[in-house]
Amino acid sequence: MCRHLAYLGPPVPLRTVLSDPPHGLTEQAWRPRRQTHGTMNVDGFGVGWYAPDDPVPARHRGAGPVWADPTFAELGRSVRSGAFLAAVRSATAGMPPGVAAAAPFRGGRWLFSHNGALPGFPAGAAGLAASLPVERLLALDAPTDSCLLWALTLDRLERGAPPAEAVAEVVHEAAKVSGARLNLLLTDGRSIAASAAGASLSWRAGADHVVVASEPYDDDPTWQDATDGCVLAADLDHGVETTPL
Ligand code: GLN
Q1: Residue 230 annotated to the active site
Q2: 159: exposed, middle or buried (Cβ count in 10 Å: 0-12, 13-18, 19+)
Q3: For a Cys-Cys bond, which of 41, 49, 164, 186 suits 29, CB 3.0-4.6 Å?
Q4: pTM for the predicted model, two decimal places
Q5: What is the mean pLDDT of residues 223-233?
Q6: Above 0.85 for ipTM, yes or no?
């Protein structure tokens, strides 16, 4: 189980959300508080962020522990953004290592991450994969369960599904894989969609910002916990809305 986070709000240096808070994502990499599978998230990391006037986000990812990457700290200090998504990875047994398997995954203006697993992958997910055109399967960043879930989500987005609907549909479909854990997180820099399906998920929303994260990064009382089995849609105009899956 990995940990992930998405932020929308006034532009801030990435570190103010990712590593400055007492229980930021960089600390969650080695001491998560609510993680139920895996103990440390040292098998990769990534951050994707949106710059003004550019709908396509930039990314920086790595294959090892986030604290061992000097560039992550540099970017955290010097990049300011009003929309970003970051993740730290604890590879599921049987999944390949490497930077290509580290979230966030990107397609056009979208960034995506997955906390969880499809047990028995790949054989157990053959039915899921069969619904995708072969070109999409061949274009997976890495042969992992998360990349397959991303391809399924992107397929729906490209066919016009609103983000929270795309997420909910993929969770429904993938829940047919017995024991699947399916916390998905998606943003286009203007809205966030996420699911809580097998792992912890929290959010925090103020007048000018919203954060959706696997777990709170501090003890601020405005954090709220998502009920397992829901899909969440958030943006700066409407705040956070959750719907049972
Ligand atoms: N199963 C995915 C992977 O191996 C996600 C990992 C996780 O949530 N721990 O990359």
Answers
A1: no
A2: exposed
A3: 41
A4: 0.97
A5: 97
A6: yes
